[in-house]
Each structure stands twice: as C-alpha cells, then as structure tokens.
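Researcher: Structure for this, please.
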Amino acid sequence: MSGRLTVIGLGPGSAEQITPEASRAVAEATFFYGYKPYVDRLDLGTHQTRIASDNREELARAKEALEKAAEGHSVAVVSGGDPGVFAMAAAVCEAIEAGPAEWRSIELGIVPGVTAMLAVAARAGAPLGHDFCAISLSDNLKPWDLIELRLLAAAGAGFVIALYNPISKARPWQLGRAFECLAAVLPGTTPVIFGRAAGRPDERIEVLPLALADPGKADMATCVIIGSPETRIIKRDGRSTLVYTPRSATGPSI
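Model: Predicted structure, token format:
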C-alpha cells in the first residue's frame, strides 16, 4: 500500500505569497511534517495533523514522512520559500535514494514556492535582472573553504549573489568574512541589499554599499543580495531607492 508525499513551498512568510497550487496541496494532505515555525503557519482542519521538528533534522523528517506515506497516507512536508532551494525537496530525494525500494514507488509531488531571494529582489527593484546565483553561508554540510571559493568565483564572473543562511548565533563571523572576500574582487560601491522577513509585518529592506555593509544588520531571517559591478541604484525623491541589474552585460575586458 502506497500513499502520496507532497513537498510544499509556503513562500517567504506572507499568506498572500502562498500559491494557489500550494494551498490546494495543503487542503489535500492529512499529515504535515516540517520545521515548527513553518507548520505553525498552516491553518489546518481537525482531520489534519502537524508533526513539527527542529531545523537541523531535515533527513530524519524526510524519512519519517516517507514511512507515513508508505503506509498509505496523504503526507506533506512543508518548507519556507521554495522546497527545492536549500530546503526539503533535496532531503526527501536523498532519503528516497538511500531508503528501501518501496519508497521509490510512493507518488511524489513537489510544489514550488516564492523564495526569499525573489521576495527581497522584488522589494528592492530588479537586482536579479541579469545572471545571478544563490549561495548558502552555512557550513553545516560543506566546508567553509568551499564557500569562499564559490564566493570568489561568482563575484569574479560577474554574478549577482544571493546569500542564504547568512549568520546565526553559532556562526556569527561568516557573513563578515564573506564581505571581506567579496571586497577583494568587487568595488566598494557595489550595492548590498539586506532583506529581512520580506512580505511579513516585520519586513526590513536596507541597501548599503559593500564598503559599508554591516554583518550585524542580518540574522537567519535575512536574505542578503550582493550586486555585480554592473548593478545600479536609482535615487527617487519621496520614494524608496531602486536597485537593478541591467539585462545586458559588457563583461570583463580581455
């Protein structure tokens, strides 16, 4: 007997940014697994059950959800933002690959969501208007040396860079070190966007030049976007500053 497992992206936090597809998927599931702040965002019926867990228990959460689906239940694993961006979709796929053969026969659906990166970019203007990449500063699953290598490569190639998991109580130094790495490659005038809780009541969007970027302005609810050398700022009287990256690029002179 095999059920269904749906991995659902709930967006960055505002109910208005949950897609209709995600809302339908929530309505159809019975058991919900996820990080507690995410499952607490769900408005569930009496026939639906939350199973919350800690943020660092992704693989265990995925296995538990697959076991429940294998029993024939309709199960959902919820993520903030998009489940395929530093989130639960990869953990579920990893669990399926390493798990029992019966898990491969479970019907699997992945429902996309609005990412923090996209929500912050929309608030600031169009910083992702040309080529960009996303890098997590968490070194829980990869070494810091690799993170620095990727930061330098992306900045040197002219990518706009969105930083996820920029700082935490356990990792208070890494965002500052990332800024130092980037400053070795990028002009000090490069725009840096601190986007905290985009779309929520406690939203805060601030734009600073890289030379003045303060790591203390970020926490784990913040997505930081660093522009490329081509990213521009438009000042507007009585309006918020616009940050955008032109659709065309000249590239480095060779």
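Researcher: Any notable elements?
Model: The first strand starts at residue 4 and ends at 9. The chain has a mean pLDDT of 95.
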